Amino acid sequence: MTEDVSAKHARFNDKKVRKTNERGRVLTMKYGKHQMMLIKKRMGVEDWIDDKLNELYNGDTVL
Predict the structure, then answer these.
(1) Is residue 42 part of a domain?
(2) Is 51 a domain residue?
(3) In this structure, are residues 41 and 48 in contact, taking their beta carbons and an 8 Å threshold?
(4) 35 assigned to some structural domain
(5) How far apart are CA 57 and CA 52, in angstroms?
(6) How many domains does the chain have?
(7) What is the domain extent for residue 42?
(8) Going residue by residue through the chain (63 aa), what tens digit of pLDDT does each one get?
(9) Is this model's pTM higher than 0.85 or not?
(10) Burial 5-31 (b: 16+ CB within 10 A, else e)
(11) How is 14-50 classified by DSSP, letter by letter?
């Protein structure tokens, strides 16, 4: 009854799992009230810039 336990289980690369978990923690980080206010303000400015550029170039994209 002394079977090799590892023969019954799949082997996964722990490093890849750890990287995924670390990345998930960063992506789901909660921001404080002040930080969220700054993010919303910056996004508002970016939206305004995008709108003005669309007006200037009539929505045409030049690559």
Answers:
(1) yes
(2) yes
(3) no
(4) yes
(5) 9
(6) 1
(7) 31-63
(8) 555 656 666 666 666 655 555 555 555 668 888 998 999 999 999 999 999 988 898 877 665
(9) no
(10) eeeeeeeeeeeeeeeeeeeeeeeeeee
(11) HHHHHHHHHHHHHHTPPPPHHHHHHHHHHHHHHHHHH
